[in-house]
Design a protein that fits this description.
Helices cover about 85% and strands about 0% of the residues. The protein starts with a helix and ends in a 7-residue tail after the last helix. It has 10 helices and no strands. The model is unreliable at about 5-30 (pLDDT under 50). It is mostly helical.
């Protein structure tokens, strides 16, 4: 009798459980939709604030030049700067197009950044994994890292000449340190529980490094890459101002000799926009490579 009653209770409980579970996915689908709408509104609001700041800066620039608060030698008007930009697009500067000067700078930066990436990150990962390797490399890195890049640039010019090789070497050294330190910090920041869990599941050292340590280091590595490319870009402009015959930095310095502040403003604005675009590209790659960042 009791067994029959239990069977009836179980048979009656199954439809009720199925009904509840069938309702749960609908609830889960509704909540993310609301969050998505709020997030979309938040992003559009931030974008509006950002563009409002840009518009305010341009309005202040226009008013300052319109009221003749400063001479146009110091602050050219937006219209004069735009005219200089269009003239550079059509006629170039000192026999080379504006695009040539920009690509020349980006070529030097990309070569140096690439070689720094393929050397600094592996060495940083090995140093974070091995205290002996870190002890061997740290004195060298800590010695040259605080030095201003232009202080040893003269030595690089003496060794490699005033061509691209000395500039690439300077940018390589400037980009190496941030990426190396970020990789070391990433390895040292990996939780030991993750390593022990992988080891307990039978993973060897290589598998632990490949599937646990390296993915955990990627956020730090990308932060180091963004820092490195920003620092290397500022160093690039400085190196072109010291010894170069092309590039955006050289263009700005050469224009200053003739008090062409409008061309100087064009070069400075282009450098700023290029720096923003380079950082955005790295951010896009970061989102694709490590979509789990910030979701732990």
């Amino acid at each position: 009798m009791n067994a029959n009653m239990n069977k009836k209770v179980d048979q009656e409980a199954v439809p009720l459980y199925d009904t509840v579970t069938s309702l749960e996915p609908k609830r889960e689908m509704e909540i993310p939709a609301v969050i998505r709408k709020k997030r979309k509104w938040k992003i559009s609001q931030e974008t509006g604030i950002m563009w409002s700041s840009v518009v305010i800066i341009f309005l202040l620039w226009y008013l300052i030049t319109k009221l003749n608060i400063f001479s146009e030698v110091f602050i050219p008007s937006p219209a004069k700067t735009w005219a200089a930009f269009t003239d550079l697009l059509v006629n170039g500067y000192k026999g080379n197009s504006l695009l040539f000067h920009l690509l020349d700078s980006l070529y030097r930066l990309s070569i140096a950044f690439f070689f720094a990436l393929i050397t600094a990150v592996p060495l940083g990962l090995i140093s974070g994994y091995s205290t002996k390797v870190r002890a061997a490399l740290d004195p060298i890195l800590e010695f040259y890292r605080p030095l201003p890049p232009l202080s040893y640039y003269t030595l690089l010019i003496l060794w490699f000449g005033i061509g691209d090789l000395s500039k690439v070497a300077l940018l390589y050294l400037a980009a190496f340190a941030p990426m190396y330190i970020a990789a070391v910090s990433g390895v040292k920041g990996v939780l030991e529980d993750r390593i022990h869990s992988a080891t307990s599941l039978g993973a060897n050292q290589w598998q632990t490094f490949r599937y646990v340590i390296f993915p955990s280091c990627l956020p730090e590595i990308f932060t180091g890459m963004r820092t490195a490319i920003g620092f290397a870009y500022t160093t690039l402009v400085a190196s072109e101002m010291v010894a170069a015959v092309s590039g955006i930095g050289w263009l700005v310095l050469d224009a200053s000799k003739y008090l062409r502040s409008d061309i100087m403003y064009v070069g400075i604005i282009l450098m700023g926009i290029t720096g923003i675009l380079l950082d955005r590209i790295l951010r896009k790659i970061e989102v694709k490579v490590i979509p789990w960042k910030g979701k732990d």
